[in-house]
């Protein structure tokens, strides 16, 4: 099995609701996003073309989240919930006989990140 990964970043604002602490106030992050696809190489020797992966993530994720106020898209925009939202939007688009979406890793700060994978 191969694991093919591409990294992205986006800037966005959010505030946490039902939360008491500094993050209930409006603030922003430069998020780092890592998308990992698992599979076996096709006849071109690729699990997924990095260029195709870039286009899918740009169109389905970054177009919505970059320079957004994330609360308008995800009610409670924790890193956990944003990672799952990203996974759910991509999983049907990266899923065929030789590859599937494996993992989303999302950094909210350089030292704080979550990983989301689906149970087998
Ligand atoms: N499990 C989670 N905990 C927190 C989340 C989250 O999404 N999931 N989010 C926040 C806040 O959004 C906050 O912006 C992040 O806090 P923190 O990691 O403390 O960020 P700092 O830049 O202040 O910390 P550094 O240690 O300097 O990186 C809070 N908790
Ligand atoms: Zn935050």
Automatic annotation (TrEMBL):
Its cofactor is Zn(2+). It holds the Pfam family PTPS. GO terms for biological process: tRNA queuosine(34) biosynthetic process. One of its GO terms (molecular function) is 6-carboxytetrahydropterin synthase activity. The active site is at residues 23, 67, 108. It catalyses: 7,8-dihydroneopterin 3'-triphosphate + H2O = 6-carboxy-5,6,7,8-tetrahydropterin + triphosphate + acetaldehyde + 2 H(+). Keywords: Lyase, Metal-binding, Queuosine biosynthesis, Zinc. Binds 1 zinc ion per subunit. Zn(2+) binds at residues 14, 27, 29. Gene3D superfamilies: 6-pyruvoyl tetrahydropterin synthase/QueD. InterPro entries: 6-PTP_synth/QueD, 6-PTP_synth/QueD_sf. It comes from the Bacteria. Its EC number is 4.-.-.-. Pathway: Purine metabolism; 7-cyano-7-deazaguanine biosynthesis. Belongs to the PTPS family. QueD subfamily. This is 6-carboxy-5,6,7,8-tetrahydropterin synthase. It comes from Kosmotoga arenicorallina S304.
């Amino acid at each position: 099995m191969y694991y093919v990964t591409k990294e992205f970043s986006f800037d966005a604002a959010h505030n946490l609701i039902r939360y008491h602490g500094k993050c209930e106030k409006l603030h922003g992050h430069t998020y780092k996003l890592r998308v990992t696809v698992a599979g076996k190489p096709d006849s071109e020797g690729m699990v997924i073309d990095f260029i195709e992966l870039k286009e899918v993530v740009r169109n389905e994720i970054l177009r919505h989240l970059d320079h957004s106020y994330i609360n308008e898209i995800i009610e409670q925009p924790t890193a956990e919930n944003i990672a799952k939202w990203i996974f759910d939007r991509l999983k049907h688009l990266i899923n065929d006989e030789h590859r599937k979406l494996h993992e989303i890793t999302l950094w909210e700060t350089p030292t704080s990140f979550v990983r989301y994978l689906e149970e087998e």
